[in-house]
Design goal:
The structure is a single chain. The protein is an alpha/beta fold and 732 residues long. Among the domains are: 81-248, Rossmann fold, CATH 3.40.50; 357-515 and 581-595 and 632-704, TIM Barrel (Alpha-Beta Barrel). 42% of the residues lie in helices and 13% in strands. It is built from 25 helices and 20 strands. The chain has a ten-stranded mixed sheet, sandwiched between helices. A hairpin with a 4-residue loop joins strand 15 and strand 16. Helix 4 packs parallel to helix 8 (228-247). The protein starts with a helix and ends in a 34-residue tail after the last strand.
């Protein structure tokens, strides 16, 4: 016991002594760590100096880099190669392309010469944004300012991409290009329009010019160098010089916000660099360049202006907005509103109709519509193009068996009674609560719609990937989706129009926004009638659809009641907007019991790009899994319905009434031949002989069903994945 007490006494004494001298201990430890850090720093620095002064060490370092053991940055490859695209009719552009290729080869750069007729921009052009290639476009302007036959599809695709929000403003960001146009100044109105348009469309998609567009002139009297060959040789010399500078990694010395060849940066630069970087070459078309050589701030301002909403109900600010219009993209909106004033004064005034027709023509230029008369339009759907090339059809193909390549997307009324936040036309169409325009006859509308549709289909003749059999079939429209834009049911002669479709054996898919209940009741049989149910409560409907009618909610409910009285196929179309209308399941179920639709389509909203008319962003677009979960929860609340089909590519599912599940098999597809027989019998009987949705059903294929491996993609086609994604041949 005494020994243990002595040990404890010694131990406690040591602890107390250590605690009293703790400051000295801490100081010693800190001093030791400091010495260790200093020694390590100087040792590492000396090793680095020895390595830098020793060639052998450098070689070893490079060896490690090659074998992937180090993270040293390799020398950047500024130009991987040059791709020369040409569109030629007489062979001049092709000859120039080969001559330019030989010159590029002399610079020890890979080069590829490509005919635009053999190139599919839809598949390949986006890949050039990451390939570090320089793309050169040598394009000729042919008859009436049109591209040559070999370049027609390339130019058509580029124009649509530049004006289609689904591609986005940054679609070709990273692509570097130069354009040389071939034309003849004798044709003043169309001189080099193809080259100018191509340059502008590439710029609109955020591609980067490496030098200003140049123009060769076949008219020797006006050619800057005496001939188009001399014009090309002069431009080629400048191009090669610029190409060499890019290969050396030279960057633009200015801020890039230069206009009309005047640099605003403070840095000094030579005349040669100004020529290359600002486009102050002798070929410069100052007026044309001013149209699209704008700074990012100006572009943002233009975008803000372009998305202004002017309509019949908001005419008070027309004149103030007119003063701010900078170009025709702004003016088309403001002038339309001014034309609306004329129609309000006298709806039948011819001058108002003509004035509005011109305004609508400006709109269709932007959205690639084909205007018909004064209030109708037709457009080629992207799914039509897709199915022409064997890349799959739209969700209507999966759900109802339409042939997407034979479907015509049209409307007899561009006007609408809503201003929905997700409107994919950005509200460039007119709005109103009643018909105020001089009415075109349905025979004329249908005839011109078919002719315009066929002309748009003809542009795909010879295009890479288009299937010959489908091209021939597409020349005869078999279906008409009356859903392009606006409210088709507003058209006073909608019944005559629908009958004319059926007389041509064209099925009718009509979409309405549930604001015209009387028109729904009076509607003659159509193949399938849709009602957009964008919200399930009065408050959310007002917030999402922004209807013009003051009694919009009662009109909405009455429209659903009118739908329940229809004997042919009826559909609710639900568009899910995340954080807006996805938490109203019970209210949706109540609306379904009110309208008793045959089918319910549930689709995630499509983001339409930025717009001052809408606050939606990509955050409001639900994932497909979220749409599936919503549909499953909704189906649990409506016992007479089940999930039938899915089209993953469109982020869309179909809920069907159980009466379409016959002997355990879904029959959501349509027997179009049988429908035409039934509707003709109905016509001949003066309406006394009726028929129902059950009379023209067809069995749904396995691949279209919910839960199938293909997830709604037709396995007879090949699904194409963009941006270097591999093609999926399984049909999944």
């Amino acid at each position: 016991l005494d020994v243990s007490m002595d040990m404890w006494s010694i131990f406690s004494t040591c602890l107390v002594s250590t605690w009293l001298r703790r400051f000295y201990i801490y100081s010693a430890v800190a001093f030791g760590i400091s010495i260790w850090i200093v020694v390590r720093f100087f040792t590492t620095k000396k090793k680095g100096e020895k390595s830098n002064g020793n060639p052998a060490a450098s070689e070893g370092r490079e060896d490690k880099l090659v074998n992937g053991y180090a993270t040293l940055q390799a020398k950047e490859v500024c130009v991987a190669g040059v791709k020369i695209f040409y569109g030629s009719q007489t062979g001049t552009a092709k000859r120039f392309a080969k001559g330019l290729a030989e010159a590029v080869i002399s610079l020890n750069l890979p080069v590829e010469v490509i005919s635009m007729g053999d190139y599919d921009p839809d598949d390949c052009l986006a890949e050039e944004t990451t390939g570090r290639n320089i793309c050169v476009f040598l394009v000729a302007t042919y008859t009436d300012g049109q591209p040559t036959e070999s370049a027609a599809w390339f130019c058509k695709w580029l124009e649509e991409a530049a004006n289609d929000f689904r591609f986005g403003k940054m679609y070709l960001k990273g692509l570097r290009y130069a354009v040389f146009g071939l034309g003849n100044s004798v044709y003043v109105d169309h001189y080099n329009t193809v080259g100018r348009n191509m340059d502008r469309w590439l710029w609109m998609l955020s591609a980067s010019r490496i030098m200003t567009r140049a123009e060769g002139d076949c008219n020797v009297a006006q050619s800057k160098h005496g001939s188009i060959e001399a014009d090309f040789e002069a431009w080629k010399a400048k191009f090669l010089s610029r190409l060499q500078a890019l290969c050396r990694g030279e960057k633009k010395p200015c801020s890039g916000k230069c206009k009309k060849g005047k640099c605003k940066s403070a840095g000094k630069q030579s005349k040669e660099s100004r020529d290359h970087d600002h486009g102050a070459s002798e070929y410069e078309d100052t007026e044309a360049e001013e149209l699209f050589e704008t700074s990012s701030e100006e572009e943002a301002a233009d975008a803000e202006e372009t998305s202004s909403v002017i309509d019949v109900e908001d005419l008070g600010n027309i004149m103030s907005h007119m003063k701010k219009a900078k170009d025709y993209k702004n003016a088309r909106i403001h002038v339309w509103a001014l034309a609306s004033v004329l129609s309000l004064v006298d709806p039948w005034l011819n001058c108002a109709t003509v004035f509005k027709t011109q305004c609508l023509n400006l709109n269709v230029v932007i959205y690639c519509y084909k205007l018909i008369g004064s209030h109708s339009g037709v457009k080629l759907c992207r799914w039509t193009k897709s199915m022409l090339r064997g890349r799959g059809g739209c969700y209507k193909h999966t759900f109802y068996g339409i042939e997407s390549h034979r479907c015509m997307e049209a409307t007899p009324s561009l006007a609408c009674a809503n201003k929905c936040v997700f409107c994919w036309r950005h509200h460039t169409n007119p709005v109103g609560t009643a018909w105020r325009w001089k009415m075109d006859q349905p025979e004329m509308i249908l005839q011109e719609a078919i002719e315009n549709h066929q002309n748009m289909i003809k542009q795909f003749k010879g295009v890479s990937g288009v299937k010959a059999d489908r091209f021939e079939e597409a020349m005869t429209a078999k279906h008409c989706a009356l859903s392009l834009v606006g409210e088709p049911i507003m058209y006073p002669e909608i019944n005559r129009f629908v009958k004319l479709l059926h007389q041509r054996s064209i099925s009718s898919f009509l979409v309405t926004n549930a604001q015209f209940p009387d028109e729904i009741r009076n509607l003659e049989p159509v193949t399938q009638l849709y009602v957009s149910v964008d919200a399930s409560t009065k408050e959310s409907l007002k917030r999402i659809d922004r209807p013009l009618f003051k009694d919009f909610w009662q009109r909405f409910l009455d429209s659903l009641k009118a739908l329940s009285e229809k004997q042919q196929r009826t559909v609710y179309r639900l568009t899910l907007v995340k954080a807006w209308n996805v938490d109203e399941l019970k209210a949706y179920a109540d609306l379904i019991s009110l309208g008793k639709p045959d089918f319910i389509e549930v689709k995630g909203v499509t983001y339409c790009g930025e717009s001052s008319a809408s606050s939606l962003t990509m955050a409001n677009v639900p994932w497909h899994e979220e749409v599936v979960r919503f549909v499953q929860e909704l189906a649990d609340l409506i016992p007479d319905y089940e999930i039938a089909c899915e089209h993953e590519h469109s982020n869309c599912l179909l809920i069907a009434h159980k009466k379409f599940k016959i002997n355990g098999e879904w029959c959501t597809w349509i027997n179009y031949g049988r429908f035409q027989e039934l509707v003709q019998e109905h016509e001949r009987s003066g309406g006394s002989k009726t028929f129902t949705a059950a009379d023209y059903t067809a069995k749904t294929p396995r691949w279209a069903l919910f839960g199938s491996r293909e997830r709604g993609f037709d396995p007879s086609d090949v699904r194409y994945q963009r941006k270097n994604k591999a093609r999926d041949l399984s049909g999944c």
